[in-house]
Write a structure and sequence with these properties.
elongated, 150 residues, 83% helix, mainly alpha
């Protein structure tokens, strides 16, 4: 299988698997919130945010800067790869920025009053993150899909 012979494809696949784990953490964190376990919810969301941030810094930004922009966005800005990549990047940056802001503004305090005010934007951030994940999966299919058929 060509996927196993390509170290970049393996890293990208591991990154996608970890993103799906982050999704499961976010869903479990939402469940904790529903059970009124707000501190556990916050800790889990902070863990998911840090895990996502690490992947963005070490996999996604380098991939975007060293491959997506020079190989697709600059020469063919209206190609499906460019458009999907740019939308993924914008949505992902927005969701990550808001996630980091939520975690930083909470600061692991026991008082959740400040978090209650952010409930609506937290839900919208989750939707933006899901949309980013979908566009990321589309990019995965564009780049890695052909390797799976060899």
């Amino acid at each position: 299988m060509a996927l196993l012979n390509n170290p970049v494809a393996i890293i990208i696949t591991i990154s996608l698997v970890i993103q799906i784990i982050v999704l499961l953490l976010l869903v479990y964190g939402y469940w904790l919130k529903k059970k009124m376990k707000f501190r556990n919810h916050g800790i889990l969301m902070a863990l998911a945010t840090v895990l996502h941030l690490v992947l963005v810094l070490y996999v996604m930004i380098p991939s975007f800067v060293m491959a997506e922009i020079p190989d697709y966005v600059v020469p063919t800005p209206l190609s499906i790869t460019s458009v999907v990549g740019l939308i993924h990047g914008i949505l992902g940056t927005t969701a990550l920025s808001l996630g980091v802001w939520f975690v930083a503004s909470w600061g692991f305090r026991k008082n959740i009053k400040g978090c209650i005010n952010k409930k609506k934007i937290m839900s919208k951030t989750f939707i933006v993150w899901i949309a980013s994940l979908i566009f990321g999966i589309m990019l995965y299919a564009i780049f890695i899909g052909p390797l799976l058929t060899r």
